[in-house]
Amino acid sequence: MTGRRGGGYDVIVAGGGPAGAAAALALARAGRSVLLADPGGGPPPVGEALPAVARTLLRDLGAGHAVPGGGHLPCHTTLSAWGSPRLSAVDAIHDPHGHGWHLDRALFDHRLRRCAEAHGAETAPGDLVRPVRRHHDGTWTVALGGRSRRRTVRCRWLVDATGRRAALATAHGARRRTLDRLVALHLVLEGSAGPDTATLVESVPDGWWYTAPLPGARRLLVRYTDADLRGARADGPDAFRARLAGTRHTAARTAAHTFPAPAVPRRAPAHTTHLDTVHGDGWIAAGDAAAAFDPLSSQGILTALYTGMRAGEAVHAHLAGDPAAMTRYTSAVDAVRTAYLRNRHTFYRCEQRWADQPFWHRRHTGPTVLR
Per its UniProt entry, which superkingdom is the organism in (predicted)? Predict the structure, then answer.
């Protein structure tokens, strides 16, 4: 390690999800002293699909031997009723990287943090990060924790991996650019319907549905729509079940599972958003804090791992005296976002059956910054 300055760290990473853990891992492997502060709180992450190409990123991070590991389900097939009522299938047998996974997200995140620890990163579970002061020498004084257990430490750089809220970046001048109103209404169903390892996506007039098996004989069920459309804010159990019954394939896929009581879906943001700048004076943003994508892309965790790794590499290079490190990182994030927007437009244009409906019309006309 480079050694701590005055009892502090080279870098403090705020956020213990995939982006934060990847940044901490990249920094620790480069020899930097790093503290990974995971404030936790909020609802636990639900299961998520991880594409097979993630194997390459995890290997590059030095975590391929341990992550994902056991405890997850393989994802062999993706089924979709998109642009047509008929189901089409994409099989993992044609993927050179093999199959993907239906993740136990808590387990996945835990293993990634343990890999960072194995390479020398320190972790501080449950610690909130509040920058207090930037000093003349460029270091930060940072408050960790709440009032009852507050402590202060010093660091040279901050990594914001706090998710969509981008708490550190927005507190220091970065602004959010939001491109749509997509929200997720999700439930976890119980009971097993047999050896089903397929993901299913089905479009409907006011959005689309997603369902996939989860470890532990559970199933994730999600309805995606725009926040200002009917039923997006107060979809109670009866309305949610009635909307599900109107689907052709999703309802059949979930029929053998047990709904929780009461079956009130939880609401979560799923819109496309990014920061107008992904780095500033002494800080850098990664993962959803830098750019958050529509779940249709299946890029959430993949982008978090990639931007986390690249952010860690950029901070290490910057601290070593490389004046172009932050510019390269900005270019890398911009390239990922540009490719995502192009693919997003292409995928949504494939569904023309309800082109006159608000949800689809908005996506066919291309992204517009809402705020």
Answer: Bacteria
CATH classification code of 182-269 = 3.30.9
pLDDT surpassing 80 at residue 221: yes
Q: Residues 169, 178: contact at Cβ < 8 Å?
A: no
Least confident of 37-41, 128-132, 329-333: 37-41
Amino acid identity at 330: T
Q: How far is CA 339 from the centre of its chain?
A: 17
- What does the block give as tokens for 136? 């003349």
Domain ranges, ordered by start, for the chain: 9-68+103-178+271-343, 182-269
Between CA 232 and CA 325 the distance in angstroms is 42
CATH code that applies to domain 9-68+103-178+271-343: 3.50.50.60
Q: What average pLDDT score do residues 223-246 get? A: 88
Q: Read off the pTM.
A: 0.94
Tokens 């990249």 belong to 26
| 158 touches 318 (CB < 8 A) | no
Contact partners, residue 217, CB within 8 Å, separation at least 6:
190, 191, 192
Pick the range with the lowest mean pLDDT from 18-22, 146-150, 165-169, 355-359.
146-150
Pair of tokens at residue 246: 């109107």
In this structure, the number of other CB atoms found within 10 A of the CB of residue 4 comes to: 15
